[in-house]
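Repro:
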Amino acid sequence: MEIIIFSLAIILIAVCIKYKPVYEVKIAGEILGFTAEKETIERNLDKYINDNSKNIAFREIEEMPEYELKLVGRSKETKESEVLASVKDTITTTYKRYAVTLDGEEKLFLESQNTAEKVIEEIKENLNEDVVINLGVVEDYTTEYEVSNEEEAKDILNEIKVAKVEEVEHAKQIESMAAKRLATTGNIRGISISIPVVGPVSSRFGSRSAARTTIHTGVDIRAKQGTPIKPIAAGTVTVSQYNGGYGNLIIINHGNGIESYYAHCDEIYISTGEYVDIDRTIGAVGSTGNSTGYHLHLEIRIDGTAINPQEYLY
């Protein structure tokens, strides 16, 4: 009996000299590595999962690691940090950040609600009451944590602010132009006429220039590209196409022998044969044909003869 016990002891010593006990760590059947410090892994893992610092909302792990005691050779390395890192790779981290919204659409993300509200407050400072920028703050949850700093957020929102102010100013200009257009009227053979585009006259009727070989048969009104063109009066469209030096040309017959020409249009919005009223947008200011810049060339003809539009308008 003593011999058996002695033999077993010898074998156990030999095993202990050659092998060591470690834990094989697996998740969903996949071996992640080996550790001699199961408690350390579990403690650090629990701390990692329950960490809520740095805008971490929560962490989720689909399967907890399994540990199985194994005997491995003494030379087998156990790297707890690598095992822990492999377990962390299976964990999904969800972060909380704060989205600044414009009309309900998320535009940028910030780390804190206080920063988001501060930036919005600064953007809205000194805004004219007729400029409305509908900014808000909402919580946002994401697994890809990217946020802007305060200065980046201000730059982005300032661009939105400038665009909104320009939009409102443009709307005011259009409204003012419309009012001025209706206020500036004349009368030809009993037909009331209004200016088609508000702007300065850059070339008068009857003038000569290097750009043309004959005297000017109309007036040029300078305006931005794309400015809407209205007819001087209601009438029927007789021409709506590209026409040589006139570029994109619209001709409208107003009756009583009166016709109006709108040349160098960037776009034409009406068709030949169509009847248009005085409020219809028939085209957009451009520089097509024989033109040196954006403007509307306006001609008014009575019984086929060009007259000076400035006797009635501008």
